[in-house]
Amino acid sequence: MLSRIQPQIRQSSCLRYRVLGSYKVINTILLDRSQRVMVAGTGSVWASVLSGVPQGSVLGSVLFLCYINDMPETVSSFIYMYADDTKIGRAVSNIEDNRRLQADLDRVQEWSDKWQLRFNSSRCKVMHLGHNNSKAYSMNCNGSKVVQCLIHKYVDDTTLTELLVNNSHVSEMQTFLQLLQTWTTNNKMKINYSKTKEMILGPLAKQPPQPLSDGSGSDCVFIERVYHFKLLGINISYDMNWQAHIDAISHKAASRLHFLRILKKSGLKPHHLLHFYLTVIRPVLEYCSVVWHHSLTKAQSETLEAIQRRALRIIYPPTISMPYIFALTLPKLPSLHNRREHINRQFFTSISSSCISSLLPIPRNHDVTSRLRAASLYPRPVTRTKRYTSFINYSLLHYQ
């Protein structure tokens, strides 16, 4: 930050903080400075120092405080500043409070542009305290707009996510899309709009906002709005029902049973056929099960079990007349439901030491739990519906 200070310190700030008598002395220290690099006794060409103050000097910290000390006067919200950290906050109870907070952010941005002291966009964050407050806020830092929009990237797949609590919140997704379009243009890349889809999850799908477009004027391309979409191998539906995903993986696994029959006719032994099933077919039925297992209906779970039942009948013909639960004992296999439960339990146990540990709530006080007969490490969530229960909430209720 000290390297951003311009040599011509604002005279108004010096006057305000009663250092006007030292104004000329300060300028003589900061102006007409040069520097060069010495390596093994050989020096580079002298270069002029156009900004900044001598590092480690007492004068540098004083000048920096003079440089930023009038920032709070630009906002109406409360603002806390410590060195180069700045926090702006406001109690938000209606739309007007949202607008005032956004206006304060805009004024702070204008202040930073005026004095050439840009904010670090990678460290600008938004945090909401309380409920029913999901308004998006934005700032333009380093030429890129900082917005409250969840973005998930995997190789060349990018997903933008916006949370709308109720109909009173206006969607900002068109703005997010335009910012992404600007970024791709600046980096000489292009969005493939033929593969770009929009999907609205939850009750808002009954009263959707305006459709998205590429913003290219009269010849704009509208983004296709879909109700089912495949994201990283998982088929997601707008109503968070996993029937489309179950149908897709069941069809894919059933098509691979054809190769199992061919191998059977070729004379492969049962243990080789079982190995083929475990490595080629069963993984299809378990891919990312931590995402969807807890929301399956009994009928959907039975659909997956039917695939494994058909595979066992191909590998072990005597199991054709046996109940499924007894057929599993021959190769000593667990049911797919029990296996998914085991996988999910292991995954939940590993979360505490992984990069997504922040998704877990704060552990309970050990002094309290040690006196309980059946204590859980984390507090159990209280939910009124099972429709949109996440894996974390389901695990907190069933795996501890």
Task: Summarize this entry quickly.
The protein has helices at residues 11-16, 23-30, 58-68, 95-114, 173-186, 243-265, 270-286, 289-292, 298-315, 324-327, 336-351, 366-369, 391-398, and strands at residues 33-35, 38-39, 42-43, 47-49, 78-82, 85-89, 138-141, 144-147, 150-154, 157-161, 197-198, 224-225, 228-231, 234-237.
Description of the molecule:
There is one protein chain. With 400 residues, this protein is an alpha+beta fold. The chain is 38% helix and 12% strand. It has 13 helices and 14 strands. It has a two-stranded antiparallel ribbon. Strand 13 (228-231) and strand 14 (234-237) form a beta hairpin. Helix 6 runs parallel beside helix 9 and helix 7 (270-286) packs antiparallel against helix 9 (298-315). It is elongated. The two termini are 48 Å apart. The model has no long low-confidence stretch (mean pLDDT 81).
Strand content: 5-15%
Largest sheet: 2 strands, antiparallel
Query: What is the CA–CA distance across the termini?
Result: 48 Å
Give the helices and strands as they follow along the chain. HHEEEEHEEHEEEEHEEEEHHHHHHHH
Tally of individual helices: 13
Radius of gyration: 30 Å
Structural class from helices and strands?
alpha+beta
How many beta-strand runs?
14
Strand order of the largest sheet: 1-4
Please bin the fraction of helical residues: 25-40%
Runs with pLDDT <50, length 5+? none
Task: Quote the average pLDDT.
Answer: 81
- Which word captures the global form? elongated
